[in-house]
Amino acid sequence: MKKALALLAILPFMAAVPATAEAAPALKWTSPCPDYGMTPSPTAGLECAKLKVPLDYADPGGRAIELTLSRKASTSPKRRGVLLMNPGGPGSPGLAMPAQLARRQGQSGLLDSYDVIGFDPRGTTYSTPVTCDLTEEQRFILVGPYAEGPRDVAEKAAKSRVVAKQCAESKTADLLPQMTTANTARDMDRIREALGERKISYYGVSYGSYLGAAYASMFPTRTDRIVLDSLVGPDGLDVRAHQRFADGFDDRFGDFTAWAAARDDVYHLGRTQAEVTAKFFELVEERGSGIRSDTWGALYDDANFPTLAGKWAAPVASAQGGPLDGDNHAALQLQVLCNDSDWPESVRYYRKAVERARVTHPMFGPAAANITPCAFWPVERREPPVRIHDRGPSNILLVQNLRDPATPLVGAREMRSVLGARAKFVTVDAGGHGVFTKENACGNDAVVRYLRDGVLPAADAHCPA
């Protein structure tokens, strides 16, 4: 049975916004779309187009880069406008998102309401990709490893210096300073113009929530209906957000221990949550800190629990990354995160942070607090970070699981506070990363009713499990 939002009333939000064509470069839509080297193609059934945008918006007549867009066009007279989507990362490609929405929410009416638009953000895959020439090991340098003491921090610092230097000397080093959230938000506004729309609706998850908040803060009058899912805090993925991965681990770990304890006859990890937790520390002693990172990654989705439990029960080799897990994804993630924020540069800072985290978050804290290449970043920020604010229309829906391992509730509450009267906030009694298209019917309904019907909760609300 579907669960209703836990509030007294919901109100219709806003009337339809008519689309008005603007002078903009014509988009030539063709198919098939790029397939990321995957079979079957994740972009099957979509059209794609190219759009040139300035590399540096301070020099709009200078060098241009190319973005690739995808579209699943509405054929309904009920069409409202366009829904732009972003999957997060940063560094995650987005061309397949309209097809994913069609598969998961094809009967919801959203495909009638919108032309659904995906895009590979600047620097990603089919949109002028960047590189740092990262080895397979270097691609995982942002988070971890778990630092047992100062020597581990020093070792990670040495590796981080090398990666930062590689980014500065790569064949795309001239693009590096312009890989920022602010510029990606400006690209989104160029996409809006090219589509001939006065306003755009938007759905973004994870880092995509911060990108959406940035767009809504930079271009508030050009936003229609905005949904931000699994919220990064208002300062983006800075050093504090990085350290909060440990909060997310702690918030979420109990879901797995309860699941495993209920299946002790299958996996033999413990009959109680306390026994499963003790097993975790036993495995760390036996196998090393890699089990910590494996566990954190698996906490993103309940569907990963059987594989994680099997790995705990009997060690297996980690799966190799897929075609989208290469150098480009990791390189762009580094470039955006390091360019966006002012990261501490002292190794001593990270040594102290690791020691604090060992006390406050012993399960994963010293991994989340360890140093990154951002401490040695080779370029200075070209502009301040985007300031998220509450000035603009009240047209933002925030949705957040209570126990998210990557974007924990503490940061989501900060984002909600900063957006003030612009937003309504729906929490979901669930674990994992991402609300929309997942198992909680109430959370899904909140998103669909807003995007399709313009119905926002009258007040902040909660969805029970």
Automatic annotation (TrEMBL):
Residues 1-23 form the signal peptide. GO terms for molecular function: hydrolase activity. Transmembrane segments: none annotated. Residues 362-463 form the Peptidase S33 tripeptidyl aminopeptidase-like C-terminal domain. InterPro entries: AB_hydrolase_1, AB_hydrolase_fold, Pept_S33_TAP-like_C, Serine_prot/Carboxylest_S33. Keywords: Hydrolase, Signal. Residues 82-259 form the AB hydrolase-1 domain. It comes from the Bacteria. PANTHER family: 2-SUCCINYL-6-HYDROXY-2,4-CYCLOHEXADIENE-1-CARBOXYLATE SYNTHASE, TRIPEPTIDYL AMINOPEPTIDASE. Belongs to the peptidase S33 family. This is Hydrolase. It comes from Amycolatopsis regifaucium. The lineage of its organism: Bacteria, Bacillati, Actinomycetota, Actinomycetes, Pseudonocardiales.
